Amino acid sequence: MALSIVFVIGLAVGYVSRRYGFCIFGALVELLTLGSGKRIVTVLSAMLVFGLVRFGSYEHSLEHAGLKHFVGGVLQGVGYYLAVGCPLSLIVRIGEGSKFHLAVFASFVLGVGLYVGLLEDLVSRTIGFMSLSEVVTLTDLF
Amino acid sequence: MKRPILGAIVVGTAIGALNLAHYFTTQQMSGVEAPFGLFPGGFPVATFLGLSGKGLSPDLVAMLVLGIGILAGSMLSARLSGDLTLSKLKAKKLSAAKLRRAALGGVLMGVGVWMAQGCLIKHTLSGAPGLMLSSFTTLAGIVAGIWLSAQVEERWG
Fold first, then answer.
1. What dihedral angle (degrees, nearest 10) is formed by the CA atoms of B43, B36, B112, B100?
2. What is chain A's Cα-based Rg?
3. Could you report the predicted ipTM of this complex, rounded to two decimals?
4. Which residues of chain A lie closer than 8 angstroms to B88, CB-CB?
5. Which of A2, A106, B11, B134 lies deepest, with the highest CB count within 10 Å?
């Protein structure tokens, strides 16, 4: 039952994202390169809904912020720029029939394999233990 | 659209509500480590682990089903608007340069998402409102990566 609901949620997310152009990556690029903040309003509204209910209490992948998060973020940012989209827009564009994004998806899967098979050990031995903070959430600071 | 800001707020609120619905649905699922919001970056991760025969945890099954749902929703929207036709699919060809770009971008995304334990959607829509420091750190890295790429392309493009 729960998985059916997850599927319906995904269906709605895919439909709404494509129909109304919801894209966090696009909003960030517009903000960073054009200085336009119109699309970021959509993103902030979506954040606000979650924040109203679960403000300061998200517990998935509870980890201390570390250097690997920043480096992982930089790699993602470059990847998003090259692939013209984040994972959500990637799936949405595949649904539209984009062969380019299908190629990105296949490479994404290979990238996961590369990390799991070769890089995970290296990362945990080098930057994996470099924690930037003793606390997990901002609320823990106060 | 006459009121673009109002439209943006409505679309954002709808996505936010779906994110919350996903969070509460995974909260009800047995075997899920901790409830989580939308995480489309988990779809390729679950695909890899499924294909490699490592087995899928309930978290990864949910990510796989969500990804299939997003794909179906996008296809439905494209079909209804007439943008998805067989002739269009056959007509599109990829140049070698585009293939290289897709390969590099995809691999970097795969490595980055796994390393940072989440994609842009998860860290923005759930991690940031949840005040997770790891999400803010990842988002700072993503913004730096996008900015850096834009600068490189502008200068040496």
1. 30
2. 18
3. 0.93
4. 97
5. B134
